[in-house]
Amino acid sequence: MVDQPEFDRQPPETGKLERLSPLVSRLIAPNAGPFTFTGTCTYIVGDRDLVVIDPGPDDAAHGERILKNIGTSRLAAILVTHTHRDHSPLAARLKSLTGAPIMGCGPHRAARALSEGEINPLDASSDHDYQPDRILDDGEGISFGSLEFETIATPGHTMNHLAFALKEEKALFSGDHVMGWSTSIVAPPDGAMRPYMDSLERLIARDDHIYYPGHGEAVKAPGRFVPQLLAHRRLRETSIAEAIRDGVETIPDLVKKLYSGLDPRLHGAAALSVFAHLEDLVARDIVRADESLSLKARFYPR
Ligand SMILES: [Zn+2]
User: Fold this and answer.
1) Residue 40: CATH number of its domain
2) Disulfide engineering: 286 pairs with which of 31, 131, 219, 281, CB 3.0-4.6 Å?
3) Ligand 1 center to residue 21 CA distance, Å?
């Protein structure tokens, strides 16, 4: 049984360009924190025509560093995996400075409507100003000179989340769907657990050799790692269903029981993750809620 996926918590170096492969370089944005590890990984891909993947937060100094590292090469496109404020806002500034089009995910959207009285806890972390020039669909191929990418829809962390496979290196830019240092946050109503787990299964069916995530080190053995992530979520789901059968009724009590030892700054995120599992357990008729589904509801076994 897998308790914890084998994360590589080696912190990547911030502020300077690191070459990771013949075509892929990484520049970390200066936004380290409890949800971002050492900062967002911005990737500069290519040798002639270049593509920037996930430019990062709207930080002028990070933008300047990206431009300096592009140098005299042509920036062919800015690709964006999803609309969180630590990934997409700098796209607009980079576009205005270089003329490169913004491509990738569609505008931000929630997994479901807010229920009555519900406040979206992640609203402030979403980029509602994001305006792509071209939205890429699942399975869509896109080329820039000799660089060829395939788009893979990976909803769950956000519903518009995309991953991009770089064919020449069998590499996958996995955004926040699969990260190197921690499990992803799946938080209702923006995110949803069932599509997240389905998206993990989609990646398990592929044979990418390496992942370049939105935070943390590259995932060098995704064939082993992604099944661990899925097993971890299934185990968590089972523990939640069991705890409810044992009489634990509220999300704060479930967090206390299931996340002992967690950094208290992450308790809010853990509550949202438990909530995401509960939504799915209710939809599957394994658990019922005493009122409309919310963080304050009480939960009982079916
Ligand atoms: Zn994110």
Assistant:
1) 3.60.15.10
2) 281
3) 24
Tell me which long-range contacts 13-22 makes (C-beta under 8 A, separation of at least 24).
13/38, 14/38, 14/39, 15/65, 17/44, 17/65, 17/69, 20/212, 20/218, 21/169, 21/171, 21/210, 22/47, 22/169
Whole-model pTM above 0.85?
yes
Q: How many residues does the chain have?
A: 302
> Which of 11-15, 59-63, 64-68, 243-247 comes out lowest in average pLDDT?
11-15
Å from CA of 161 to ligand 1 middle: 9
pLDDT at site 20: 95
User: What is the DSSP-derived secondary structure letter of residue 65?
Assistant: H
Nearest by Cα to 50 from 166, 159, 134, 180: 166
pLDDT at 2: 41
What's the 302 CA to ligand 1 centre distance in angstroms? 33
Q: Identify whether residues 50 and 76 lie together within a single domain.
A: yes
Give the pLDDT confidence of 205-260 residue by residue, as tens digits.
999 999 999 999 999 999 999 999 999 999 999 999 999 999 999 999 999 999 98
- For 252, the domain range is 232-301
CA of 300 to the centre of ligand 1 (A): 31
Final residue of a structural domain among 210, 226, 242: 226
**C-alpha span between 156 and 201 (Å, rounded):** 12
pLDDT in tens, 36-54: 878 999 999 999 899 999 9
Say how far apart CA 52 and CA 40 lie, in whole Å: 13
CA of 85 to the centre of ligand 1 (A): 8
